[in-house]
Each structure stands twice: as C-alpha cells, then as structure tokens.
C-alpha cells in the first residue's frame, strides 16, 4: 500500500506540474532512440527519406517523449515520477498502461514543454491477493508556439506487496 492514503491521493487529482522543459528533438537523439528500440527505418535518420514520405523534417519514433523521464529534461525541483510523490513503493510498482494521442508528428527541431496532470487514482482488489492502487497521469507536450503536439497517458500500479508462494505439503 502507498505511504499516502487514498484520500490524500484523491486530493491531488487535477493537479498539474511542468515535468519537462526544453525537450529539443535532436537528429542524433532521434537516431539513437530508434536504434535503442530496434527500429532501423531510415525515416528516423535520413532527411531525404522523411521528405519523400511527406514530413517537413525527420520525425521521431512515436514513444520518443518517454525520454522526458530522464533527469536531463526535468525542471529543477521535479525529482519524483512525473512530478508527483504518490507514496508508491518502487519495489511493488509497475507500469500498467501507456497511450498516445498525436495532433501532429514530433519532428527534429521541435522544442517541447511537458505538463503532467494527475487525472485519476483508485484501488482494486488484485486477483492474486492484495489491493492495487492505480494512478493515471496525463502529460501534454506543447511546442515553442504553445501548440499541442502529443498527449501521453500513463497508468502506474502499486501492488499490495509480494505474492506469497504456496508450498505443497
């Protein structure tokens, strides 16, 4: 169970925090990211290929905004996950779900700011025992003109602890 009560977590719902500043979509980082996820599509490294496919610049892979979890892009004072101290024990926390909604492709040259809002918290009984606590976080990434580029929704789950092994006697 989180170190914070459900009522404390519910009081945070609707709170927003700037969680990424000056995320510059750089050509080298796009290529590295594509390589890291095993995508060798030349659109992520060759301007001519990107232009032939109708892009104004080299696009970033769809999940590139996950790099904002790295400290390099966090504003000063944002140390915890997406800016929220949920009281979840990292040993019993898992990434439950991820969804993206794009207004347009992320392109090399974009400079993004991410603002994360805690949109929901709730508890459910787990099928293998224990109570699970869910937190749903939505991050909007806007470009230098303030235009929305992508919205990312992540669900984090803290399980009730380790599952006891049953031993046959």
TrEMBL record:
A matching Pfam family: FAS1_DH_region
Q: Where is the FAS1-like dehydratase domain?
A: 11-151
Task: Indicate the secretion signal residues.
Answer: none
Q: Which InterPro entries match?
A: FAS1-like_DH_region, HadA-like, HotDog_dom_sf
Supply the Gene3D superfamilies for this chain: Hotdog Thioesterase
* Official protein name in the record: MaoC family dehydratase N-terminal domain-containing protein
């Amino acid at each position: 169970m989180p170190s914070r009560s459900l009522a404390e977590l519910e009081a945070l719902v609707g709170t927003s925090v700037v969680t990424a500043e000056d995320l510059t979509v750089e050509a080298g980082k796009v290529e590295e990211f594509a390589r890291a996820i095993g995508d060798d599509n030349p659109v992520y490294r060759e301007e001519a290929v990107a232009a032939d496919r109708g892009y104004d610049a080299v696009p970033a892979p769809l999940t590139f905004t996950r790099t904002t979890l790295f400290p390099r892009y966090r504003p000063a004072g944002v140390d915890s996950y997406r800016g929220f101290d949920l009281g979840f024990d990292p040993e019993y926390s898992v990434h439950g779900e991820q969804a993206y909604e794009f207004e347009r492709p992320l392109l090399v040259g974009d400079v993004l700011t991410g603002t994360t809002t805690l949109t929901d918290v709730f508890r459910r009984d787990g099928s293998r025992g224990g109570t699970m606590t869910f937190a749903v976080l939505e991050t909007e990434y806007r470009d230098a003109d303030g235009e929305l580029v992508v919205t990312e929704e992540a669900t984090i789950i803290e399980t009730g602890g380790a599952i006891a092994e049953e031993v046959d006697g």
